[in-house]
Amino acid sequence: MKFSLNPAAPDRRLLDRSRRARAMSWIMAIMLFLTVLAGALGLGMFAARGSLDRQLSGRLTVQIVEPDAAARDRDTQAMADAFRKMPSVKRVEVVDRERLAELVRPWLGDAGLDPDLPMPAMIDVDLSDGSDAAVSRVAQAAKAIYADARVDRHAQWLSPVRSFMTTMSWLAAGLVLLMATATAAVVLLVARSGLDTHRDTIEVLHMLGATDIQVARLFQRRIAFDTLLGGLLGAGAAMGLVAFLQSRLGLLGSEMLSGVALQQRDWFLLLMLPILFALMATFAARVAVLRALGRVL
Description:
- The chain is of the alpha+beta class.
- The protein is built from 9 helices and 4 strands.
- The longest helix has 41 residues, at 212-252.
- The protein starts with 18 loop residues before the first helix and ends with a helix.
- The model is unreliable at 1-14 (pLDDT under 50).
């Protein structure tokens, strides 16, 4: 027997192409729509976490809390000069008073601009090497000039955000696996239902000399076609929604949220999901039909 890959071929007509078959495509469209959304969430969180790590790696802020303005300015300048001489330091910036006033404006209002208000001096430091040893050398240099200097790592401030991104990445991966399992279960149910519906036809095919493998090909091709068709529809709709949301995130102008944007390789991985699901459905249908035929027919 010869079987064509054309969905309208005579061997395809042996299978149900009625409302039930169309429902299979819609179910797969919904499955892939949710799967692509979950995958986009995971890839976006993974990209954002990597962007956050790159931005915060080796970034420090040194604070000098000194009520005497003259002593504070002197220690700040001496500390900045000492940092610039260190080989692991690639950028040193003393935060001016106006910027500090803007930072405290939500709490103090315009009172932060009062020159008589004591404000701590802050120095932003970027290290080429974000290791603990490099941070320790900066801290030692700072405390050698001002014993009560405070050195804060930016990565430590945002560690809860990074942990949340990691959790969301794993959650998205779990959702993708869950949807893949649900898709395989749907394929098994459809294959078994098809066997029960077409039992008489399958018996006739066996009497005509068709083997179990040839009968299984009828089912796996039909299911593969429905899965791929529905998957492409669902994935296309999901990718369109993801692209729209990504454009809206870009309009927010947030440096942190900009890292959530998907890269070209991420779009390629999302586009591969319908193909992977179709292959998985084909394999699941083949195994289910062959086992059922070997056990019953």
